[in-house]
Amino acid sequence: MECFRFEATRTQIISRWRLRLWKSFCGDWIKVGTFDIAILECGQYGKSWPYIHMLPEETVAAAKDLGAEVLLPVHWAKFELAFHDWDDSIKRVTKSASDNNQRITTPLIGEPVVLGSSYPNKVWWVLN
Questions:
Q1: Which has the higher per-residue pLDDT, 85 or 100?
Q2: Which domain holds residue 42?
Q3: What is the pTM of this model?
Q4: 72 located within any domain
């Protein structure tokens, strides 16, 4: 069970990964308001292990349920564990976020995300 909530004076962050059934472990936090950013896993999923990782569309649904202002998808393109292409996760999560009016940030590795001001969203995984 890995579900973390970080709070500061005016900032709330939730981070959760590894457990697809996130409502069972993080569900109570939905009742206490919205989150400035939700850092949620979005990768290494497969039909053979449906209870370990969320599908990209489920990641967006979780962010919506949490009332996240911004979604930061993580745990994708790090290593090859699943049978999907390395960029399948990010393509699907960004499409789902767009379809569901969920703001998303997709920083390059090491690129800063500044809550309340800077949410990088360049489509850097697409080769020109």
A1: 100
A2: 3-99
A3: 0.81
A4: yes
